[in-house]
Write a structure and sequence with these properties.
This protein has 2 domains: about 130 residues, Four Helix Bundle (Hemerythrin (Met), subunit A); about 220 residues, Rossmann fold, CATH 3.40.50.10470. About 40% of the residues lie in helices and about 20% in strands. It contains 12 helices and 18 strands. The strands form 5 sheets. The protein has a 7-stranded mixed β-sheet with strand order 8-7-6-9-12-17-18. The chain has a 4-stranded mixed β-sheet with strand order 13-10-11-16, covered by helices on one side. β7, α7 and β8 form a beta-alpha-beta unit. The two termini are about 30 Å apart. Bound molecules: 5-S-methyl-1-O-phosphono-5-thio-D-ribulose (MRU). The site of 5-S-methyl-1-O-phosphono-5-thio-D-ribulose has 18 residues, from α2 and β11.
Length: about 375
């Protein structure tokens, strides 16, 4: 997608062939800064402190990180150690394990001398695949938005967190149908949940949509239910960090409350789901998905720009009060209208998901 008219991705292979560039998302929207990852430890740090974030982008960054480790030491021991370090950076997004498993499976049979070159090219292939996956999610999602537009004219979408191009390698997942609808001339407007505590909605999604010229309003996280009651939301589109084989959806904290409000107001609730985000080993999302607990300071403090443009961190909770900060929640499959995947739109249940497994023999069970 474009920033001030220039095409960018949030991660790219540098021309030297042995370092990766990233957009440092901890600086947005107040400043635009890039950073060069030259060693595996820097890739791990970038994921841990969320310079890069969003499930698909975490996976691709880890792939580049593993490749950098192979450049420095292509031994089995180093491969195992880098896998362990990168895997420990963030616990919830399954794309991290998916990417590392794929890299390890390809690299282990190779001679040490071949490992770095193959790791580097595979990381690039995974980045390009992510772009194509998200483009296709957008194509399928566009049919849903077009349907609303044909009935109503304007389409009001509510989204949570940032499942935008910054969270992927391009297009985004939840934003891909929005960008494609906008580009097709559909009148689309987005309600952007600010998404406390880290404000990925107000900081990142709003910035992205603004760069692309998509009309939007940032709303506080508690406003969605009210807007739905008053007919101001036609559908919800969110991303996911891990979806179970049975269709339970883990996503940014607060997603579950939006799904409850959507169900109570008969607002369709769609989840944009790249297949690497499906954890086929997990059946019960609430019981089995590890939920990341982040620092209490993310709740008690907030970053913002002062009138002179300087960025400052403020305390916003009573001094001395403690806080807890679960970063994700699980929306049960029964609250999900449909899963928009790169292989079609399917119901959130085990049979429908099984039908889109790469090894499935039969076609997807499409929603009508
Ligand atoms: O903590 P974050 O910012 O990494 O969380 C991101 C989300 O929850 C996204 O909705 C999810 O990763 C889907 S990204 C296409």
């Amino acid at each position: 997608m474009k920033i001030d008219g220039v095409a960018w991705r949030p991660i790219w292979a540098e021309a030297d062939g042995e370092s990766a560039g990233i957009i440092d998302q901890t600086c947005l929207p107040f400043s635009f800064e890039t950073k060069r990852l030259t060693h595996m430890a820097q890739a791990a740090e970038a994921i841990r402190v969320m310079r890069v974030r969003g499930a698909p982008l975490i996976g691709v960054t880890a792939a580049y990180g593993l490749a950098l480790a192979m450049r420095d030491d292509p031994s089995d021991a180093a491969l195992g150690a880098a896998y362990k370090t990168l895997h420990a950076t963030r616990p919830t997004a399954i794309n991290l394990r998916w990417a590392l498993d794929r890299m390890r499976a390809v690299l282990m049979p190779l001679a040490e001398g071949e490992r770095f070159a193959r790791a580097w090219s595979l990381a690039g292939e995974m980045a390009d695949e992510d772009v194509e996956i998200n483009r296709r999610i957008g194509e399928y999602g566009l049919t849903v938005l077009r349907d609303v537009a044909e009935r109503k004219g304007r389409v009001n979408v509510l989204t949570h967190c940032n499942a935008g191009w910054l969270a992927t390698v391009d297009w985004g997942t939840a934003t891909s149908p929005i960008y494609q609808a906008h580009d097709a001339g559909i009148d689309v407007h987005v309600w952007v949940d600010e998404t406390r505590p880290r404000n990925q909605g107000g900081f990142l999604t709003a910035w992205e949509l603004g760069q692309h010229g998509v009309e939007h309003h940032v709303i506080v996280d508690n406003a969605g239910g009210h807007l739905m009651q008053h007919g101001e939301v036609d559908l919800c589109l969110v991303g996911t960090d891990r979806t179970t084989a049975t269709g339970d959806v883990c996503n940014k904290i607060g997603t579950y409350l939006k799904a409850l409000a959507a169900a109570d107001n008969q607002v369709p609730f769609y989840v944009c789901l790249p297949s690497p985000t499906i954890d086929w080993r997990v059946r019960d999302g609430v019981a089995e998905i590890p939920i990341e607990n982040r620092a209490a300071e993310e709740v008690t403090e907030i970053d913002g720009a002062l009138p002179d443009g300087a960025v400052a961190r403020l305390r916003i909770a009573s001094p001395g009060s403690q806080a807890v900060n679960p970063a994700f929640d699980v929306t049960p499959a029964r609250l999900v209208t449909g899963l928009i995947t790169e292989r079609g739109i399917v119901e959130a249940n085990e049979a429908a998901l099984a039908s889109i497994r790469p090894d499935a023999l039969h076609g997807a069970i499409m929603l009508s």
